[in-house]
Design goal:
- The chain is of the alpha+beta class.
- It has three domains: 65 residues, no CATH class; 191 residues, Helix Hairpins (Orthogonal Bundle); 103 residues, Glucose Permease (Domain IIA) (Distorted Sandwich), CATH 2.70.70.10.
- The protein has six helices and 14 strands.
- The strands form three sheets. Strands 3, 6, 7, 8, 9, 10, 11, 12, 13 and 14 form a ten-stranded antiparallel beta sheet that branches. A two-stranded antiparallel sheet has the order 1-2.
- About 2% of the residues have low confidence.
């Protein structure tokens, strides 16, 4: 049955694939191999299938290669845009730092001008009081001189009347004595009148000086008002970014300042007067000056708090790129979705790493999963952690300041490549370090 079926198939295929013979010649003789139509059909079908499979596989490989190239280009573009954004943020940070420095210089200059103007104002006030006292003395002297002049004139009139009613030698001698007395009194009255005129001129000059001093005082008050306005504006402008920086990091500014104030509460020294020099209620200018001083004290507390909190980048050189953010992510070792409690900075092996705030080293050694790691405890319940180092440059118990080098970037521990794993903890709970880095970049 099978033989008949094969015969019929060969007979059918004979029209398209006639029987072929392949001759093989050797020293022993000549042989041939018979290729039946069905054998040729099987060979052709198998070859066609192999060629089709090869074409399809090649097409799939080419499509995957093109798709992979497109994804790589998009990743490169996104990385370039991210680096440009980081460069812009760094430039903006430098500009803000320069503006803050210029504002501080302007504030120091304005404060010096206020001090100098206050000294001149006190001196002018003392001079005005002296002039007012001199004017009072001159006026009293003029009153006495006018009264004496009137009394002398009355006495002269009485003497003249008495001489006219008397006669004789004795009376003549008395008249001569009276005339001499009158002449002396007339000279004295003339001298007194001249002194009165001179005192009137001095009083007029004193009044003009007092008016000039009053005008200068009014002008100085206007200048003081303008200076206070500039100082108040500078304090407000400088305070708002710092307040926003702490709030953006999820920290209460008032609570932080209270803690800083408790840590810097030492007092002493000789008893000094407050801003008011009159011993009574503060004037408007004194109250404004005290407000500015309170604002400066708050700014100083902010400065101390900012140094003790991790508002900095552990790699300030900027020679890195972010490879993993805070939160859930796919495990790099293929173990599903895991929580990532920090930021990953990829860079060159041995890149210097720096402390982001003042603190004390509480761990420095090998940590499970972190490799070579350093953990620093800061004020306000804050801690920072630096993992996967190639070398540790600090020891447990060592005090460090912001910007101190604590180690080098490496690939130790559970890591797929050279990078820094950086964490920030608030009250023992990990938070997103980018919140602190971005808040600082918006201010400094």
């Amino acid at each position: 049955m099978l033989h008949r079926l094969a015969y019929r198939i060969n007979a059918t295929l004979e029209n398209w694939l006639p029987e072929q013979r392949l001759f093989l010649k050797s020293d022993e003789g000549t042989r041939f191999i018979r290729l039946r139509p069905m054998t040729q059909a099987v060979a052709l079908t198998t070859g066609g299938l192999l060629m089709a499979w090869t074409f399809i596989a090649t097409s799939i490989i080419l499509m995957d290669s093109i798709s992979a190239g497109s994804d790589a280009d998009q990743a490169a573009m996104q990385q370039q845009l991210f680096e440009q954004r980081l460069t812009a943020l760094s430039t903006d940070r430098d500009l803000r730092a320069e503006e803050a420095s210029r504002a501080q210089d302007r504030f120091n200059l304005a404060l010096a001008e206020v001090s100098e103007m206050q000294a001149r104002l006190l001196a002018s006030e003392d001079r005005r009081k002296e002039l007012e006292t001199g004017i009072d003395v001159i006026q009293n002297t003029l009153r006495r001189a006018i009264l004496e002049r009137d009394e002398s004139r009355a006495a002269l009139e009485r003497t003249t009347t008495a001489l006219a009613s008397q006669s004789g030698t004795t009376e003549l001698g008395r008249a001569r004595d009276a005339l001499a007395t009158i002449g002396f009194m007339s000279g004295a009255l003339g001298q007194t009148a001249r002194e009165r005129d001179e005192m009137s001129k001095m009083a007029e000059v004193a009044r003009e000086d007092a008016a000039a001093i009053q005008r200068a005082k009014d002008e100085m008050a206007l200048r003081n008002d303008a200076i206070f306005a500039r100082l108040e504006e500078a304090v407000t402008v400088s305070m708002e970014p710092l307040d926003k920086m702490f709030r953006a990091a999820g920290m209460s500014p008032d609570s932080l300042l209270d803690q800083v104030r408790k840590g810097y509460s030492g007092q002493g020294g000789p008893l000094m007067p407050i801003v008011s020099t009159k011993g009574g209620a503060l004037s408007e200018d004194e109250a404004r000056a005290n407000t500015v001083l309170q604002g400066l004290d708050r700014m100083n507390m902010y400065r101390l708090a900012a140094v003790k909190a991790p508002f900095a980048n552990p790699i300030p050189s900027g020679n890195y790129r972010f490879t993993s953010g805070f939160g859930s992510r796919n495990d790099p070792f293929g173990r599903g979705t895991r929580r990532h409690e920090g930021l990953d900075f990829a860079g060159a092996y041995g890149t210097p790493l720096y402390a982001t705030a003042d603190g004390v080293v509480v761990k420095a050694g090998w940590g499970n999963g972190y490799g070579r790691m350093v953990q620093i405890r800061h004020d306000f319940g804050l801690e920072t952690l630096y993992g996967h180092m190639s070398e540790i440059r600090v020891s447990v118990g060592q005090k460090v300041s912001r910007g101190d080098r604590i180690g080098d970037m490496g690939n130790s521990g559970r890591s797929t490549g050279t990078h820094l794993h950086y964490e920030v903890h608030v009250g023992g709970r990990p938070v997103n370090p980018m919140t602190f880095i971005k808040a600082a970049s918006d201010v400094f």
